[in-house]
Specification:
The structure is a single chain. This protein has 177 residues and is mostly helical. It has 2 domains: 107 residues, Orthogonal Bundle (Endonuclease III, domain 1); 54 residues, no CATH class. It has 11 helices and no strands. Helix 1 runs antiparallel to helix 2, helix 1 runs antiparallel to helix 8 and helix 9 crosses helix 11. The longest helix is centred in the last third of the chain and has 17 residues. It is globular, with a radius of gyration of 16 Å. 31% of the residues are buried.
Length: 177
Amino acid sequence: MGEHGKIFEELCFCILTANFNAEKSIKIQSEIGGGFLTLVEPQLARKLKELGHRYPNVRAKYIVEARKHKNSLKDVILSCDDEHGLREWLVKNIKGIGYKEASHFIRNIGYKNSAIVDFHIIDLLVRSGSIERPKTLTKAKYLEIEGVLGALAAELDMNLAELDLYLWFIETGTVLK
C-alpha cells in the first residue's frame, strides 16, 4: 500500500472513531484496509454499514473527501512546526476530524504531546476533582483540559501519550492502539 496509504488508513480510522467505538473501528480498519483509498463512496458506505458502523454514509463521505489530501498528508506532517500545528491543520482541513480525533491521529503516528480528551478521561478527571464536568467540549475547553493533563504529566515525569494511555487503561481496562 505504501507509506501514504498507511498514513491515510490511520486517518480513516480516526474519522471512524468519532462518536463510535474504537474497538469496532479497529476491526473495520482491518477489514477495509486499502479500500479506504479505492472504494467509491456508495461502496464504502455499504461496507461500513455491513461492518456495523453507526454512521456509514457520513463517514464514507468524509473519507472520500479526505482522499484529496492522501498524497500530501506526509508532507503536511513534516512541514508543520509542531504537533499542535498539525492538529490545527487536520481540524481545519479534514471533515469529520475534531480535536479529539486529530489528537488520536497524531498520537497513532508517533507524536507524544497531545492528549486524547474523551469522556473516559473527563470522567476520571471529574472524579479526582481536577476539573468540573464541561457542558460542552469546545476548543478552548479541550485545550484547558489538555493543559491540566500536561501539568499532571510533568508532575509525574511522563509525556501526555504515556499519561493518556495510563488513564485510559485505568478507566477502561484495555489498551487498543
